[in-house]
Amino acid sequence: MFDKTKEISRQTWISATFLLIISSVVSKAFGFIREMLIAQKFGISGQVDAYMVALSIPVLIGGTIGSAFSVALVPIYHKLTNGNNEQKAKRFINTVFSFTTLISLLAMGIIFFMPETIIKLIAPSLPDSTISLTIELLKWLLLLLMGYSLYNVLSAVYNAIHHFKIPAFTDMFSNLFIIAALIFLTSAMGIYALVTGMISSFYFFLLVFLVHLFYHRLLGFNFDIKTKEFREFISFTAPVLLFMFFMSASGIIENFFASSLKEGSIASLGYAKRLYDIIPTLLIANIAKAVFPTFSTLHAENKTEALRDLVIKLNKQFIIYFLPVTCIVIFYRKEIISLVFMRGAFDETALTLTSSAFMFYSLGLLASTMVPVFFRLCYAFSDSISPLIAIVASVSAMILFNYFLSPFMGISGIALSNTLSVFITLFALGFLVRKKLGGIELLPLLKSFLISALCATLVLIPFIYFSFSNPYYILFLIPAYFVLYLALGMFVSKNEFNKVWMTLRKNI
Questions:
Q1: Contact 187, 32 (CB under 8 A)
Q2: How far apart are CA 290 and CA 167, in angstroms?
Q3: pLDDT, average across residues 397-421
Q4: Segment 442-478, tens digit of pLDDT
Q5: For residue 83, what are the contacts with CB-CB under 8 A and spacing of at least 6?
Q6: Global model pTM greater than 0.70
Q7: Spatial contact of 175 and 167, defined as CB atoms under 8 Å apart
Q8: What are phi and psi of 96, to 5 degrees?
Q9: Cα 418 from Cα 396, distance rounded (Å)
Q10: Separation of alpha carbons 38 and 58, rounded Å
Q11: Chain centroid offset of residue 299 CA
């Protein structure tokens, strides 16, 4: 039979990174419009609280299944293809696809028959009217459980063969369905317009994946669960499932504590976190996703020194790029929130709550850029235990911090608890992964951090004296800040910052 697999284009991790970043920029631009429309039409109302609590359940379950299976799929697939077992590799993909579909359907059935119990477990202090709406929304949003799980697994199939174009382009335009639903259906359907847009978006692009992969004979139905590869997959996935569950549980924990605060607290946290998540999801998640096959290949070829050098270079780049981002977004937090959300039902009270949470989330931005790379590094070593240890420690600390901070600081305490837990994750991962790389040199990273912190702080001083009432001025001031930051960096440490400039110029 003619094998069409090789007809699918492949990309290097560098070209894939920039492809994914460009697609994510476009996607996030549409995401901005989506979030502005949600804020304009619903503000921080109980409707948004209900939607976010209901959405968190399929995100938690479907995201956990899909993410865990996708992470386990890539290294096992590469192991089979490196051993010239192409047909076994394809059968393995088909078995994972079939198994994911079955598990997702079972999870959907269980939740459908006990929605109230689950909702009261994760957000016990919501008003009765909000709980009733959450139950109704959950019955529809359960369709996303299947969507999240299969979308992640099928994206991993593309990643495993070093093809990133189809997932990138589907992600690029996914928000258009939601925007269209909010514009044309909200007056008739209310919050259900948002639900309709979400479901339509996921299943349209899931259909694109299925048709394309079936056509290239990379996908089919197979349930051969007795193979050595599938047993290895299950063995590897079990701790990863626990890890992904705890990883996704942060939103559930935040909703649990926020449900006891005033109405709209869950919505304000959601707006702040989605805005904060732009950089980790727009850039870092795509870099980690694109570099993961390279990590896996270098490990398979026993090139530990090259792998260690790549990790150190990546983290030095993150420090130089994202430390000034942390400074400027905290400094202009109210202007940023106002620019994005301040219209319609989103009032001054919403601005105050959301900008306060945004500030405390942003304190953990630099740590958040490093964590995904360390996670992927562990999985490249087929180590699913170290990430699990790190995330259990992080979630445990997050619950403890929330217990003490949220009663006194409100949603700011919840956001701060999230940031502190991110630092715990980073330190735990760094400690656990260093032996696998033969040690990690901290002095080069510390040097980059000190130089970047000095430049970012000095350049920020003149901006203290800029006062204006129109938030649109930040569209000019923030780029000016980064130009001055890079100029000062080149003066203070030409060697460190020249690498950044060369990387930008080369890839642009």
A1: no
A2: 12
A3: 94
A4: 787 888 889 889 999 999 988 887 766 677 788 888 8
A5: none
A6: yes
A7: no
A8: -65, -40
A9: 11
A10: 20
A11: 25
Token look-up 């701790």 returns: 239
Type and span of the H or E element at 44: none
- Is the CB of residue 88 less than 8 Å from the CB of residue 280? no
Backbone angles phi, psi at 137, to 5 degrees: -65, -40
CB 257 within 8 A of CB 25: no
Tell me the C-alpha distance between 349 and 370, whole Å.
34
**Is residue 264 left, alpha or beta, with left meaning phi > 0 and alpha meaning psi from -120 to 50?**
left
The CA-based dihedral angle spanning residues 62, 65, 69, 71, taken in that order and rounded to the nearest 10 degrees: 80
Q: Which residues contact 137 (CB under 8 A, 6 or more apart)?
A: 50, 51, 54, 55, 191, 192, 195
Least Cα distance to 308 among 435, 447, 440 occurs for 440
Residue 171 pLDDT grade (very low, low, confident, very high; cuts 50, 70, 90): confident
- Counted residue by residue, the chain has a size of 508
Crossing angle of the two packed helices 265-276 and 228-258, in degrees rounded to 10: 130
Identity at 217, one-letter amino acid code: R
Distances (CA, A) of 57 to 108, 213, 333, 418: 10, 28, 29, 19
* CB contact set of 379 (below 8 Å; sequence gap of 6+): 71, 72, 74, 75, 240, 292, 296, 387
244 Cα distance to chain centroid: 12
* Two tokens, residue 293: 């096959």
Q: Are 164 and 20 in contact (CB under 8 A)?
A: yes
Residue 491: how many CB atoms within 10 A of its CB? 10
Q: What are the tokens at 209?
A: 């994946």
Tracing tokens 């997959």 back to the chain, one arrives at: 233
Separation between Cα atoms, residue 383 and residue 375, nearest integer Å: 9
Using the structure block, give the residue that is written with the tokens 């070093």: 162
Cα–Cα distance, 431 to 375 (Å, whole number): 12
Q: What is the pLDDT of residues 468-503, one digit of tens each?
A: 667 778 888 888 998 898 888 888 776 766 665 555
Is the four-CA dihedral 313, 314, 319, 322 of positive or negative sign? Answer: positive
What are 14's two structure tokens? 């560098």
Structure tokens at 202: 């996921």
Report how far apart, in Å, the C-alpha atoms of 227 and of each of 155, 189, 233 are.
Answer: 23, 49, 10
- Terminal Cα-to-Cα distance of the chain (whole angstroms): 42
Q: What's the pLDDT tens digit per position in 267-312?
A: 899 889 888 887 676 667 667 766 777 787 777 777 778 888 888 8
13-42 helix and 333-341 helix, angle to the nearest 10 degrees: 70
**Residues 374, 67 contacting (CB under 8 angstroms):** no
Assess contact for 357 and 350: CB atoms under 8 A. no
